Amino acid sequence: MTDRTHRAKPVVLASYENDTADRCVDLFQRADGSFGFEEYRRDPEDAGRWSRIGWFGERLYATRDDALAAAKTAVAWFGSVAPKP
Questions:
Q1: Domain ranges of the chain
Q2: Alpha carbon distance 21, 85 (integer Å)
Q3: Residue 3, pLDDT score
Q4: Calpha distance 19→57 (Å, rounded)
Q5: pLDDT at 85
Q6: CA of 81: how far to CAs of 16, 19, 42, 48, 68, in Å?
Q7: Full 3-state SS string of the chain
Q8: Cα–Cα nearest to 52, from 26, 33, 74, 78
Q9: 13: Cα within 13 Å, side-chain hemisphere
Q10: pTM of the model
Q11: How many CB atoms lie within 10 A of CB 32?
């Protein structure tokens, strides 16, 4: 028997793009209730597809606010577009 909750895709709660719309940070929640974030980029030569570049997605956070704070610290450009508390 397979554990589907382990394989379930996280639910994206918010996606924030930079001013030039070529970088974004997604905040998400996993099936187990933990939170996380990931950074992506979009390049013309990739036909506008988003590609993961941050490799932060495996980090676990207890709350959405914890994940948001960690993203602000880890992703240099994100602090200028992230929502204020």
A1: 4-75
A2: 23
A3: 52
A4: 23
A5: 64
A6: 7, 8, 17, 21, 12
A7: CCCHHHHCCCEEEEEEECCCCCEEEEEEECCCCCEEEEEEEECHHHCCCEEECCCCCCCCECCHHHHHHHHHHHCCCHHHCCCCC
A8: 26
A9: 16
A10: 0.85
A11: 10
